[in-house]
Amino acid sequence: MKNFLHSMWVIAYRELLRFVQDRPRMFSSFTMPILFLIIFGAGFGKLIGQMMPGVDYLQFMYPGIVAMTVLMTSVMSGVSIVWDREFGFLKEVLVSPLNRGGILLGKATGAAGIAIMQAAIMLVIAPIVGVSLSWGTVLGLIPLIIILSISLSALGLLIGARMRSQQGFQLIMQLVIFPMMFLSGIFFPLTGAATWLEVLSKINPVTYGIDAIRQVFLGSEVAGVTIFGHTMGVVESALLVLGVGIVLLIGAIWSFNKQE
Amino acid sequence: MEVIKSRNLVKRFGKLEAVKGVSFGVQEGEIFGFLGPNGAGKTTTINMLCTLLAPTAGEAIVNGFNVVKERDQVRRSIGLVFQEPALDDYLTAEQNLRFHAYAYSIPKAAMKLRMKELLEMLELWDRRKEKIDTYSGGMKRRLEIARGLLHHPKVLFLDEPTLGLDPQTRSRIWNHIRELRKRENLAIFMTTHYMDEAENCDRIAVIDYGEIVALDTPDKLKDAVGGDVITIKTEDNEKAVRLLKDQYNLQPNQENGAIRFTVLHGEEFLPGFVSGFPVRLISIGLHRPTLEDVFLKLTGRAIREQEADQMQHLKRRMRMRGH
Fold first, then answer.
1. Within 13 A of A55's CA, how many CA atoms are on the CB side?
2. Alpha carbon of B86: minimum distance to chain A alpha carbons (Å)
């Protein structure tokens, strides 16, 4: 157990150190969400106003953009294990006395740390772009971001644990990250969407993460995913994401142990 | 004391038997070399000894620990430098070493002293704050050697430590390795396919197709070739080979338009041979046996020919992948 925790922090430390060292990555990680915010804001702003009277699109979109940052960072952090393998660093890790499970959990924890840092940047920007934010909202967001990012990096790790080269990487981007992003209600409310779209979005765990984040931002009247007639609250959604994350993480550790 | 003991170590990948039961022992403070062409099973053996691969059969003990049952103890007691760099390019040299120190739970004060000692010895101290992506190939290799030694291992594994480096850098790395051995009473297990490099080893195991075909000191291996190596070119090589076999009782080898054979006391053999040989000679040369000759004698092929084959094979594969 001691070795497990030790391994976890050593790996998490390296993930964070690497992130802080890598300025371009840090910069690009929040330029894209902001770009989305501006473009979608300009394009959909009025439409959303008609669909959900009384809700300002910026207020609606902003929590989604925060979640999107978390989504991208976390899945990428998980999949970065492929990079480690390709550039040899994984060997240094594997031949050390570090615990295998601890290594993966360390990657997930590191991803959560990075996601928190990025979310913090986004939250600092919020008042500048005109999104109102209270301290209570910020405090409520922290656990949600941690849960969401650990779960999503577990997804990245599960994919990366088996992947041998970077060639599959673009494919993952297109087949996993983008669909998850667009089917999660980041950009538009899913109520009133086509039935197939609604079903897919309800299977997507990211939907619940984003919904929880949005509820913390806007209050529970606005959002809430309804499945089988039951509307999910913040805590329920968070637990669901956590549960999925734990399953993914166990799968990743199993898959990783089996082949190395 | 033996720091590595391997008994009938076998590794199979599906139907391919990469390592076919190798047995050997490495003494404390010794430089032990695995010499053989690419694909002979050198890296596979290293990977088994350092717990990265589980052996299919057989047993290996490293520093008194079983490589299957006591992985963690083995890992703590060995240092490794891989064939390809295994550094984090985004971090500085110092950060890479610090990561290693954390991973091996080295106390902070000890780490600082050791880091300074090693980086100074490997002439990297001044550049410790630079990112790895500014490092040359030789610097990376030196840093990896420093890293591999940070936790005071008793055995250092070097997998092709000078692969892809230029001759000056190679000899510099070798000076470092020899100095290290002297200072730290370290056993070094290394693989190489460079013959001249293998000369630096105290003992060499010649490995071919996953089997050890000879194991001894470089001098004794060379003595076993049987005298001096004579290379001749003639106007009719076929006839010359026949004559050498039948009338001189030698075992000539033909390659690249030249004939090679070994005789005892070559200098005394030459004058009589030159005046008496019925086929017209174009050139003649004599040298003391090298490890190249040892490999040729043991396997019937030159290691270089195989290299060429390997390269072609690789290129073909690259083309198939569409590169």
1. 24
2. 4
Report helix angle A205-218 to A57-86, nearest 10.
Answer: 140
Q: Is residue B280 part of a domain?
A: yes
Instruction: Give the predicted TM-score (pTM) of the model.
Output: 0.81
> Across the interface, do A87 and B89 touch by the CB < 8 Å criterion?
yes
Q: Where are the domains of chain A?
A: 2-259
How many angstroms separate the CA atoms of A149 and A118, rounded? 11
Read off the DSSP letter of residue B300: S
Smallest Cβ–Cβ distance between B88 and the set A7, A89, A94 belongs to: A89
Assess whether B93 and B130 both reside in one domain: yes
Query: Out of A5-14, A43-52, A220-229, B124-133, which region has the weakest mean confidence (pLDDT)?
Result: A220-229
In this prediction the ipTM stands at 0.83
Nearest to B85 among A88, A93, A94 (CB): A88
| B143 CA: distance to closest CA in chain A (Å) | 13
A97–B75 C-beta distance less than 8 A: yes
| A88: closest chain B residue by CA | B86
Residue B242 has pLDDT above 60, yes or no: yes
Q: What is the DSSP string of B22-53?
A: EEEEEETT-EEEEE--TTSSHHHHHHHHTTSS
Query: How confident is the model over B161-182, as pLDDT tens digits?
Result: 888 788 888 888 888 888 888 8
Judge if B99 and B8 occupy the same domain.
yes
B122 belongs to a structural domain: yes
Whether residue B200 sits in one domain with residue B231: no
The mean pLDDT of A211-225, rounded to a whole number, is: 75
Whether residue B319 is contained in a domain is answered as: no
CB contact under 8 Å between B86 and A88, yes or no, is: yes
Helices (H), chain A: 2-21, 23-51, 57-86, 89-94, 100-129, 135-160, 167-172, 178-182, 195-203, 205-218, 234-259
